[in-house]
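Exercise 3.2. Students should predict the tertiary structure of the chain below and write it as structure tokens, then compare their answer with the key that follows.

Predict this chain's 3D structure.
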Amino acid sequence: MKRLVTIFITLLLPIHIFSQFEAEFVDHCATSAGEDATYLKDFQVTLSEATPNQRQPVARFPLVLSKNNIYRFSICTADGSVGKAILQLYDSNKLIFSSYNKDSGEEFNPFNFMCQKTGIYHVFISFNEGKEGQAVGILSYVSK
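Answer key:
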């Protein structure tokens, strides 16, 4: 019986610790969006490294944004991740904004988006150079 309890604790304890880490990580990232931002949604991502001749892994999240609202997008890369997380906002197939400019190496985190039309948008999260990593993206509403 003692052995069964030990096995049970050994298997479930890491799951509980990982869940707490995720909640704390999400909370920390949400607060980094600023005091003028109201948390709306998070996008949690764990991606493996791309193998040679493979497309870069990307997590895609659809969302509806409303006209005449200002939204703030922020991204946080978890400690221990090999790659740096990149958040991109798309309207259909058109890239609207990215948290990272590949050409200049400049980062924009967080970035605000003034929605000009109500509709379905997509958040893409990936890691630079197809590296593996864990990250959370945050969508917040910014009061005018």
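Discussion points: The domain at 2-142 is CATH 2.60.120.380 (Jelly Rolls). The chain has one helix and eight strands.
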